[in-house]
Every structure is written in C-alpha cells, then in structure tokens.
Specification:
Elements: H1 2-11, H2 27-35, H3 40-48, E1 52-55, E2 58-60, H4 63-67, E3 88-94, E4 97-102, E5 108-110, E6 125-128, H5 131-139, H6 144-147, H7 152-155, H8 159-166
Length: about 170
C-alpha cells in the first residue's frame, strides 16, 4: 500500500527525479538471485520495490546494486563488528554507513547513531525486524527527516520528503 501511494505520487510528479523509486524484480531474476545466495527477505522486498534512493545519503539498494556492495560484509582488520558474508547481506547505505539484513533472522542492522565511522563501532543495532518494516516505518514516514538529517532549510529541496508529502505519508 505504501509503495503504491509512492508510485502514484511519483506519477503525478514528473519534476521529481526518476531514480527515487526502483521497479520490481521478476520471478526468474529472483530465483536466480536466490540460487546465488541472496536472502529471501531482500528478494521479497525487491519483488515489490527494487531499490529506493531517498536522498544521496539514504538508499535501499536494488538487487543489481546490492550485489555490487557485498564487500561491506567482508571482515576488516581491527574492526570488532561481526562482519561476515555468511551472516550479513548489505542492502543499503545511510550516511556512508552500510545497512545489513541479518541472514539468520531477517532483521535490519546498522550501527548506533553515535558512531559516524562505522568500522569503529563496537556493535550492531537492530533498526527494524525486517526490511519491509524498516522501509515503511522509518523511510516512508516523517521519521525519514531524522534519518536523512533534513533540517528546515533543506526540507523544501529534499525530493524524497516532497514525494512522501505528496503521497500523504509525511506532513
């Protein structure tokens, strides 16, 4: 329902950048990606919305882009975060910090706000129980303003916030 509202608002807003909302992933592509180890939680999301560029600094990747960002799952020397391609799948970025789906439980993980240099973080924080909830409750509502670091001056220029408002998802 949220994605439908966003797509309808986007169709009524040709002046907004087209890259804000991705398309959808077809079943054949999803099956091939699943066979290559892409988590089902991410593929379910891509079947409805294959990525969203909320702003230059807040993104949920589409399938193709996500596949090119899995190096963020690789362990880093002197980093205490439990990075592992077997345990994590990078699904987006928030302010140059990767966002992951936990392969075991499907939850969305990020680092706590107080850590701006993500490899220095000591732990992950669960951002939502799943990718759909993360998108619907944190990125497709007025909560985006905090995540996107949108202040009063930049609000009128933020195309994602404009789209949310036109879709009736944010005031």
């Amino acid at each position: 329902m949220t994605v439908d509202a966003l797509r309808a608002a986007k169709a009524q807003s040709p002046e907004l950048f087209s890259y804000l909302l991705g398309g959808t992933v077809d079943e054949e592509t999803a099956r091939a990606a699943a066979a290559d180890g892409v988590p089902p939680e991410f593929l379910d999301f891509c079947r409805v919305l294959d990525g969203a560029s909320c702003s230059p600094s807040v993104q949920i990747f589409g399938l193709e882009e996500a596949l090119g960002h899995q190096f963020y799952c690789d362990p880093i020397i002197d980093c205490v975060l439990p990075l592992s391609p077997e345990k994590l799948f990078c699904v987006g970025m928030i302010h140059e910090t990767p966002v992951y789906v936990d392969r075991a439980g499907g939850g969305v993980l990020g680092i706590p706000d107080e850590h701006r240099e993500w490899p220095d973080a000591e732990r992950f924080e669960q951002l939502a129980p799943g990718l759909e909830e993360f998108f619907v409750e944190r990125l497709a509502t007025a909560a985006y303003v905090r995540i996107g670091l949108v202040d009063d001056e930049s609000a009128e220029y933020d195309e994602w916030l404009t789209l949310l408002r036109r879709a009736g998802l944010a005031a």
